[in-house]
Amino acid sequence: MKRVLHRKIILLVGIALISVIVALPFVMMILSSFKTMAEIQSPVFRILPESFSFDNYWEAMRQGNWARYFSNSFIITAITVSLGLLTMSLAGYAFARLNFKGRDLLFFFSLIGLMIPEQVILVPVFLKIKEFPLVGGNDLWGNGGIGFLNSYWGLIIPQIAHPFGVFLFRQFFLQFPKALDEAAKIDGCSRLRTLLKIYVPASLPVFATLALLKSIGSWNQYTWPLVISNADNMRTVQLALSIFKTEYAVQWNYILAATTLIALPVLLLFLLLQKYYVQGIVTSGVKG
């Protein structure tokens, strides 16, 4: 009993220590967002600001069109997550429940995408988006215009699907017995109806998990929006932080205030879906 108690105490202390280490940067960011520029640059470090004032927040939101920046990020994230869940669930279902020639080989090639860094394919994807046929002034061969540059679809299309999402759905769908498909087929259900009526309602933890991961990834995306768009009305919240940086100075108090506001939607989403996130990760990794 004593050994079990000691192990529990050590485990709890370890979890508490890790939690403090993880939470400390966020706490410091929030506290520093209330500090003046003089306090931030002061050689004497103080954890708490001299006074809690929202002036940094008001002034930060007055610089630039933040209503537009937030709406851009919300629209891009919402469409990316919706289309991503649709395409990845269909692909995961096909790899898990359909028997067709070359299925395992195709799944193997899809997993290769997990090993390729985003920066490696940045230029080819950019060229494909720019040369998309019959869009943005392009002709049938993708020449003469700008394609999907400076557009929502240019920001959304490359982020829709991801090999990890396909893998997660496949792993979860593999846990269902084959008799379930046979029973649905006897009842006259098509493959698509079987997916929608049986598999989707039973897969809410996986959908919630991927919705959370895709939302965080899309909301925090910086490199691709920086490459694909240069118009102010297409800026996302991450790119908009650059307005506080000039050639001569960096307005750290405004950056910290804006960053705190930017982090709030993702933090709230995580708090709402954390139960399903843990459940989805655990249940999807049971079978290979």
UniProtKB/TrEMBL annotation:
Its main location: membrane. Keywords: Cell membrane, Membrane, Transmembrane, Transmembrane helix, Transport. The chain crosses the membrane at residues 9-31, 74-96, 105-127, 152-173, 194-213, 254-273. One of its GO terms (cellular component) is plasma membrane. It comes from the Bacteria. It is found in: Cell membrane. SUPFAM superfamilies: MetI-like (SSF161098). Residues 70-273 form the ABC transmembrane type-1 domain. It is a multi-pass membrane protein. One of its GO terms (biological process) is transmembrane transport. Pfam families: BPD_transp_1. Belongs to the binding-protein-dependent transport system permease family. This is ABC transporter permease. It comes from Paenibacillus nasutitermitis.
